[in-house]
């Protein structure tokens, strides 16, 4: 296979199709849907694939899986994944393509991911006589919410018939300029577990405090004590986060509530430490509550595992990206304590998750993801769909010809 000529054709088509897929991104952005409710988005993707002549199937109600066959379809299979759910955020951008679904917004760039993969689908379908094997297009539901759409699609066979030898996924990166990508080998995103605590005790008038259980005091002590797990018990070179982000209970200035509720998250990059920390959290929460006369209900909802990029696939992909974009455009991304259910795929087959620069070069910064003013420089879509096309066509480090 003439990879130089193929790369040139991918570059040309990405530039040619850019405006079309900017429009696709804007349509998706205007019609965001929450996790596991992506019915209109799913139908739109199916329509796009149908127009391209790409066969597809539906998994987990809204997930869509397309197949493109090149020359010698059984030679290799590579999977490309984009997530498509949005967040419960009221958009504040003043743009023509602002969300039409009040209280729902594509604030994490999944509209961009989907547009890039649809653009790659068109490029790869156009060039299917230029590359070998089969490409599996995975448009995934529910990335933003446990149990994660990736886990559901895997249960329903997304990695079977045919089984990919590797998988690629991308995510927008607001700190990175348009035209650049970044990636890293090994652990690159954290596990994410949800913590739910209810502190219980005898409530009543503050004037009778000697007869009561001071649930607000217990709650504050639990929060402070939990921080010592990170500052004193965490392995020195293992990044980790333990944060309580929600406290509820009580509605009077002079009454001790009979219960207080806490919600938080625990993030880690090492599974052994992750499991040990779960035990420490349980011991700490229970110990503090009992020492101060209260009772406690605690649950830890295990979420996404650590996302680990396959080192061999990373090295191969990095070199392909350098050859395509230039060395100065391909950076090593920082390890982040955000979480991604792409990690479930990475547990099954070699995976490479990379970041796409979406910041205009004339701006020093743009609003981050998960905020009401998040938006991108849409020129990034050209790079996004080109890289997805390249990795799909020549990204298999084991069987590429």
Short description:
The protein has 401 residues and is α/β, with parallel strands linked by helices.
Cα(first) to Cα(last) distance is 6 Å
The name of the CATH topology of the largest domain is Aminopeptidase
Per DSSP, what share of the residues sits in E-state strands of 2 or more residues?
15-25%
For CATH, the homologous superfamily of the largest domain is named as: Zn peptidases
CA radius of gyration is 24 Å
What is the CATH class of the largest domain? Answer: Alpha Beta
* CATH architecture descriptor name of the largest domain: 3-Layer(aba) Sandwich
Quantity of strands, as a count = 16
- The poorly predicted ranges are none
Shape, per Cα inertia axes: elongated
What is the number of helices?
Answer: 9
Number of domains: 2
Spatially, the strands of the biggest sheet line up as 1-2-4-3-5-16-6-15
Largest sheet: 8 strands, mixed
Structural class by secondary-structure content: alpha/beta
Query: H/E order of the elements?
Result: HHEEEHEHEEEEEHEEEHEEHEHEH
What is the residue-averaged pLDDT? 96
Helix content: 25-40%
Structure description:
The protein has 401 residues and is α/β, with parallel strands linked by helices. The protein folds into two domains: 276 residues, 3-Layer(aba) Sandwich (Aminopeptidase), CATH 3.40.630; 112 residues, 2-Layer Sandwich (Alpha-Beta Plaits), CATH 3.30.70.360. Helices cover 36% and strands 25% of the residues. The protein is built from nine helices and 16 strands. Strands 1-2-4-3-5-16-6-15 form an eight-stranded mixed beta sheet, sandwiched between helices. A four-stranded antiparallel beta sheet has the order 10-12-8-13, with helices on one face. Strand 3, helix 3 and strand 4 form a beta-alpha-beta unit. The chain is elongated. The N and C termini lie close together (6 Å). 47% of the residues are buried. The mean pLDDT is 96.
């Amino acid at each position: 296979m003439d990879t130089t000529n193929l790369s040139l054709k991918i570059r040309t088509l990405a530039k040619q199709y850019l405006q079309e897929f900017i429009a696709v991104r804007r349509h998706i952005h205007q019609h965001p849907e929450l996790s596991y409710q992506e019915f209109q988005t799913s139908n739109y993707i199916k329509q796009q694939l149908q127009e391209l002549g790409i066969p597809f199937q539906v998994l987990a109600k809204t997930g869509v899986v397309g197949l493109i066959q090149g020359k010698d379809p059984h030679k290799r299979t590579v999977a490309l994944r984009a997530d498509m759910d949005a967040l419960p955020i009221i958009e504040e951008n003043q743009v023509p393509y602002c969300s039409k679904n009040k209280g729902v917004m594509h604030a994490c760039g999944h509209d961009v991911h989907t547009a890039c993969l649809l653009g790659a689908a068109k490029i790869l379908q156009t060039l299917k006589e230029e590359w070998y094997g089969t490409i599996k297009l995975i448009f995934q539901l529910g990335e933003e919410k446990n149990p994660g759409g990736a886990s559901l699609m895997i249960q329903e066979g997304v990695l079977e018939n045919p089984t990919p030898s590797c998988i690629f996924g991308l995510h927008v990166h607001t700190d990175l300029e348009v035209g650049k990508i970044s990636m890293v080998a090994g652990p690159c995103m954290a596990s994410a577990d949800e913590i739910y605590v209810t502190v219980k005790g005898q409530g009543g008038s503050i004037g009778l405090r000697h007869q009561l259980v001071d649930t607000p005091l217990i709650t504050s002590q639990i929060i402070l004590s939990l921080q010592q797990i990170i500052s004193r018990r965490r392995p020195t070179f293992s990044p980790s986060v333990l944060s309580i982000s929600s406290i509820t209970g009580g509605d009077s200035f002079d009454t001790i509530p009979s219960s207080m509720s806490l919600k938080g998250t625990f993030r880690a990059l090492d599974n052994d430490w992750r499991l040990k920390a779960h035990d420490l959290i349980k011991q700490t929460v229970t110990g503090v509550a009992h020492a101060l006369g209260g009772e406690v209900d605690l649950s830890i909802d295990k979420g996404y595992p650590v996302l680990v990029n396959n080192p061999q696939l990373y090295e191969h992909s990095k070199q392909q990206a350098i050859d395509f974009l230039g060395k100065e455009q391909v950076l090593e991304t920082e390890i982040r304590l955000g979480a991604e259910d792409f990690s479930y795929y990475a547990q099954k087959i070699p995976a490479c998750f990379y970041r796409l620069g979406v910041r205009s070069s004339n701006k020093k910064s743009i609003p981050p993801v998960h905020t009401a003013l998040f938006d991108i420089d849409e020129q990034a879509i050209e790079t996004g769909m080109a890289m997805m096309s390249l990795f799909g066509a020549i990204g298999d480090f084991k069987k590429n010809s």
